[in-house]
């Protein structure tokens, strides 16, 4: 069996998430998790829709949204520049229910403050939203900086994870 690109949709409180992966003899490698309205979403061909290889991803996403999972354990695609991969790897240390700042993330990577914009670009290029938790990176002043899935979804995710208190109505 050769490797092929497959897609599925996962319903969530954030809208329908588009999952893309490569399926082959050793199983599925998740290559993208996109949110509605996100720029750069992979093109989907009808013949590439196949829910079967995504069974474990569906289980883990359902558990996350139900509050029973705090991290994902899925084979992930690591395609990216060495700099992007280093930034994405640093996200592994930003745990559920916590946040970090762009400056703190840069410091963990021994980068000068002049590289903060590059860190932000690498986070913006993260093709695996939610799974690689770039939503946990906020401004030094506590502000919600850009998020490819939308700032409203970033706020929802941080509230869901307990990093932010729910807004009082």
Structural write-up:
Pfam families: DNA_binding_1 (PF01035), Methyltransf_1N (PF02870). Belongs to the MGMT family. Residues 7-78 form the Methylguanine DNA methyltransferase ribonuclease-like domain. The protein is of the alpha+beta class and 169 residues long. The chain has 2 domains: 4-65, Double Stranded RNA Binding Domain (2-Layer Sandwich), CATH 3.30.160; 82-160, Arc Repressor Mutant, subunit A, CATH 1.10.10.10. It has 5 helices and 5 strands. It has helices at 55-65, 82-90, 102-108, 116-124, 151-160; strands at residues 4-10, 17-24, 27-34, 100-101, 137-138. A 3-stranded antiparallel β-sheet has the order 1-2-3. Strand 1 and strand 2 form a beta hairpin. The longest helix has 11 residues, at 55-65.
Which structural class matches the secondary elements?
A: alpha+beta
Distance between the termini: 54 Å
Shape by Cα distribution: globular
Spell out the CATH superfamily of the largest domain.
Winged helix-like DNA-binding domain superfamily/Winged helix DNA-binding domain
Nearest-integer average pLDDT: 93
Strand content: 15-25%
- Secondary-structure element series: EEEHHEHHEH
Tell me about the biggest sheet?
3 strands, antiparallel
- CATH second-level architecture of the largest domain: Orthogonal Bundle
Task: Output the number of helix runs.
Answer: 5
Supply Rg: 16 Å
Looking across the biggest beta sheet, what order are the strands in?
Answer: 1-2-3
How many β-strands, per DSSP? Answer: 5
Q: What is the number of independent domains?
A: 2
**What is the fold-level CATH name, i.e. the topology of the largest domain?**
Arc Repressor Mutant, subunit A
Ranges where pLDDT stays below 50 over 5 or more residues in a row are none
């Amino acid at each position: 069996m050769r490797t092929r690109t497959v897609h599925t949709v996962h319903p969530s409180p954030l809208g329908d998430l588009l999952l893309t992966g490569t399926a082959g003899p050793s199983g599925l490698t998740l290559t993208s998790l996109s949110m509605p309205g996100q720029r750069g979403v992979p093109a989907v061909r009808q013949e590439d829709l196949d829910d079967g290889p995504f069974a474990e991803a569906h289980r883990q996403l359902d558990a996350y949204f139900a509050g029973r999972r705090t991290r994902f354990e899925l084979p992930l695609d690591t395609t990216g520049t060495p700099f992007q991969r280093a930034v994405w790897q640093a996200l592994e240390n930003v745990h559920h229910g916590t946040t970090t700042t762009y400056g703190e993330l840069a410091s963990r990577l021994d980068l000068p403050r002049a590289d903060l914009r590059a860190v932000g670009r690498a986070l913006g290029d993260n093709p695996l939203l939610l799974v690689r938790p770039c939503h946990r990176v906020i401004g030094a002043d506590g502000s919600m900086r850009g998020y490819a899935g939308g700032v409203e979804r970033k706020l929802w995710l941080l509230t869901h994870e307990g990093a932010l208190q729910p807004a009082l109505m």
